[in-house]
Amino acid sequence: MCGLIESQHVSSGKIADKQPGHIQSISQIKKNSRWLENDWIDSQTFFTPFIIKVLQNIIITQKELIFIIDGSVVGRGCQTLMVSVLWKGKALPIAWKTIQAPKGHFPQEDHLALLSCVESILKQIPKVRCMMLGDGEYDGSLWIEKLRDLGFEYVLRTAKDTLITDENGEIFQGKNLSIGNETHVYIPDCQTSKKVKTHFVMWHEKPFKDPIYLLTNLEVGMMAIGYYRKRFKIETLFKDFKSQGFHIHQSKLTIPDRIDRLLIVCSLCYLWLIGLGAILIVKTKWIKKVYKPQKDTFNLFTIGKRLFNYLNKNGLAIPDIFKSLVT
User: Fold this and answer.
1) Is residue 141 part of a domain?
2) Do 150 and 119 touch, CB atoms closer than 8 A?
3) Residue 25 domain-assigned (yes or no)
4) Per residue of the chain (327 residues), what is the pLDDT tens digit?
5) Which range marks the domain in which residue 26 is found?
6) What is the maximum span of the chain, computed from C-alpha positions, in angstroms?
7) Residue 110 burial by CB count (10 A; 0-12/13-18/19+): exposed, middle or buried?
8) Which of helix, strand or coil describes residue 295?
9) Are residues 161 and 188 in the same domain?
10) In this structure, what CATH number is given to the domain that contains residue 202?
11) Pairing state of beta strands 129-134 and 64-74?
């Protein structure tokens, strides 16, 4: 973790050069490789126990868990499907699954497998309201039915040509609807072509060239829109894992299981730096050292990186940042 945070790159050589200790870089690279190749290492053992503590802390203040699912390209010829949870405006990684595929959609089976991981995590925390947000890939019938079985509320994007049947039995497609001067249309008690009961929302505001079509089980259209706006937070998570942080898209790994293990380290480092950023809000004496409100966008991850570099450079003790996440 120290090597990844200091190097800010998933390259084995760059991590080894920054890892503490007196081991030569070539030996450290081999040691790190053995860790990535170890089939006994998985996120359920090395990451899930910690994220359970994080979720227990989140529900104390938020009273709900807002999950977001999306996929992104990682390594060479691979994609990772990830579920994250919102905390202080940031998407925190919860569970993930990597497959060998340079691009395209994940099979619905992978969506359901990841949801099962989330289900097992939720069983270990107090019952709480849960919301799932997803893009157009995540409107499958089995996926929606599973969300409902688990008691999730959901807001999921769907295609403009999805066939929808309203409560009067009329079949329509979103692309054929007109909303006039309104910003949205809410049509309750619909069914998709796969006989999934849901509500339909067509949302079109001036900044958008084209309307956005949503499926939801919320009873108020504007509430569904308000939640869906938060979906884009997972894009900043992927950006932090890539160009703004660890450059995981530049990893040369090609085996999904090894990428999944690398994501354990990336996710723990990410939470560590988010925790540092959260501490900075309280430790006001450090704010001027790393954050300029007039110039900087408030990003807990970026601020956490700057604070880590400042403390490390000046030989100052790094606070017990995990306490801001798990207590």
Assistant:
1) yes
2) yes
3) yes
4) 778 888 888 888 888 787 777 777 788 888 888 989 999 999 999 999 999 999 998 898 888 999 999 999 998 999 999 999 999 888 999 999 999 987 888 888 999 999 999 999 999 999 999 999 999 889 888 999 999 999 999 999 999 999 999 999 999 999 998 888 888 999 999 998 878 899 999 999 877 788 999 999 999 999 999 999 999 999 999 999 998 888 888 899 999 999 999 999 999 989 988 888 777 665 556 666 666 655 445 677 877 777 777 777 777 777 665 555 554
5) 1-37
6) 74
7) middle
8) coil
9) yes
10) 3.90.350.10
11) parallel
Domain match, 150 and 227 both: yes
> What does each C-alpha distance from 174 to 160, 179, 192, 200 come to in angstroms?
5, 11, 12, 9
**DSSP state string for 37-60:** H-TT--HHHHTHHHHHHHHHHHHH
Q: How far apart are the C-alpha atoms of 42 and 49, rounded to whole Å? A: 12
Choose one of 235, 251, 281: the last residue of a domain: 235
CB 37: neighbour CB atoms within 10 A? 12
Residues whose CB is less than 8 angstroms from the CB of residue 268 and which lie 6 or more positions away in sequence, other chains included: 1, 47, 50
In a domain, 83, yes or no: yes
Q: Which residue has the tokens 């079985």?
A: 149
Pair 26, 155 in one domain? no
pTM of structure: 0.90
Distance of alpha carbon 40 from alpha carbon 104, whole angstroms: 30
5 and 56 together in one domain:
no
Pick from 33, 39, 92: which is nearest to 253 by CA? 33
DSSP string for 71-121? EEEETTTEEEEEEEEEETTEEEEEEEEEEE-SSSPPPHHHHHHHHHHHHHH
**Paired strand residues for 203:** 184, 212
Name the DSSP class of 318.
P
| Residue 175 Cα to chain centre, angstroms | 29
